[in-house]
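The instructor's notes for this session suggest beginning with a concrete chain rather than abstract definitions. Hand out the sequence below and ask the class to guess, before any prediction is shown, which regions might be ordered.
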Amino acid sequence: MNALSRFNTRYPFHPYPTGWFAVGFSDDLQPKEVRPLHYFGQEMVLFRTESGEAVVTDAHCPHLGAHLGYESWVEGEAIVCPFHQWKYGTDGKCVHVPYAKAIPPRARVKVWPIAERGGMIFVWHELGGAEPGYELPVFDESRKRDGSGFRKMHDEFGAMHPQDAFENGVDYAHFPGIHGTGMVISGGPITEPEPHRFVSPVRILPPGYDGPKDDPKIGSTVDSQVIGGGLSRVESRTPSAPGVTTVYYVGVTPVNEQLSHYYVHQFMLVDDDCPMSAEALDRFIQLSREHGIREQWSDGKIWPHKAYVEKPLLSSADGPILKYREWYKQFHPEVA
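After discussion, reveal the predicted structure:
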C-alpha cells in the first residue's frame, strides 16, 4: 500500500493536475513587488505592476538566463531583468533592450494565465500547456467583514495531492474524530452546476445530539465545493451566529513530487440584517479565527504519513467518496 507509484509518489496518478492553483495572497503582494516561485517542478516569478496587475512568468530571461525573481525590479507595467536590464511587459514580450537599435522578435518570457479571487492569486496549470478550460467563478462577497478571518500558507503538510486534501469535504466520518463535531449527514444532493464544480452540502449535528435528524435548524450547514483540480471554497453557517457566513478558500498547489503548499483564507460575510450585537459579532469572529487557525493542523498532521487507498474499504458512515473521486478524474492529465 505504501510503495511509490511510477510518478515517485504515493498516488497512482500524476502529481500535477489541471486547474487553477493558489500561488499567494493578494494583500501580500504590493505594487512593484517581485518574488520568486517554485511550483509544478518549475521556477516562476510573481510580480505586481505599478497599476496593480499581478503577473506570473517563467523565471529566466531568454537573453542570457538571469533569474527574474532575484534583484529584478518593476518599472511601470514591466519587469526589468537585473543582468542586462531587458524589460518584459505583462504579455511577456520584451519592450526594451538598452542600447540596441531593435528588439529581437523572439524576445519574450512565458506568461501564465492568472486570476485573483477571494483574496488569493491563482495561476492556471495544464501539463501540456493548454489555455484555461474554464474561468474561476466570481462569488458575491460584498458583505465581507473587513479584518475578519486569517490567511496562511502551510508548507509542513507533506506532499498530499490536491484530490486527497479536498476529499475531506465528502469524508463525513472524519469530522467527529478529527474536528470534534457531532455526526455529519448529507445536507442535500450533490450537484455539478458546471463540469468543473462539485458542490456537496452537509449538516453537522451538535456533539452528543441524538434527536431527529430531519430538522434543518439543528446543527451547522456547510456548503463545500471543489472548483477544478486545485481549489475548494466552503461556506458554513451556524445557529449560534445568525446572519454570519464563514467562508474558506483552500488551495493545494504542488511544489514538486515531495511537497505541496496548502493555502487557506478565512473571512466572514455579515448580512445587513444580522441580529447579533456588535460585541457578540466581534467575539464570534475572533473565536472563529482562532478555531480556524487551530483546525488546519487537525487534518494537516495526518497527510504527511497516510497512504492512498485506491480501493478503500468503506462503511455506511462514510460519505460519497467514490463519487467525488470519479468526478475528479477529469483533472488528471493523460500520460503515457
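Then share the key points. The chain has four helices and 18 strands. The radius of gyration is 22 Å.
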